[in-house]
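For reproducibility, we list the full input for the iron/sulfur cluster complex.
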Amino acid sequence: MIPLHNLPASSRPEPSVTCDTCAAKCCRLEVMLITDTGVPMRFIDEDQWGSMTMARLDDGWCAALDREMMRCSIYENRPLICREFEMGGDDCLEERNAD
Ligand code: SF4
Ligand code: SF4
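The corresponding predicted structure, in tokenized form, follows.
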């Protein structure tokens, strides 16, 4: 699997934590779109107040996740929140340890 969140090796706090050994668990989290990064409209949910989030499937995974490869299918256009999600950070570790 190609890492979802590439970070320089020097900034990885926990060497054993890598996207290569994780089935994109953070891609089940709600992702708000706070900037326009070119996410295709078919992957966007918009509520009645105009707030936009990444669409999720019934099982909770982001609609833009390539389920065969378990990698982001819109990596170059992924939302800012996904770009800033820190591999090996607290949120990452919490998701990895969740069911
Ligand atoms: S939860 Fe962490 S290790 Fe897993 S894909 Fe996301 S950033 Fe990578
Ligand atoms: S946009 Fe890509 S990186 Fe972000 S949650 Fe969806 S599949 Fe994961």
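The mean pLDDT is 89. The pocket of iron/sulfur cluster (ligand 1) is lined by residues 4-5, 17, 19, 22, 24-26, 85, 87, 92, 95-96 (CB under 6 Å). Both points were considered when choosing residues for closer inspection.
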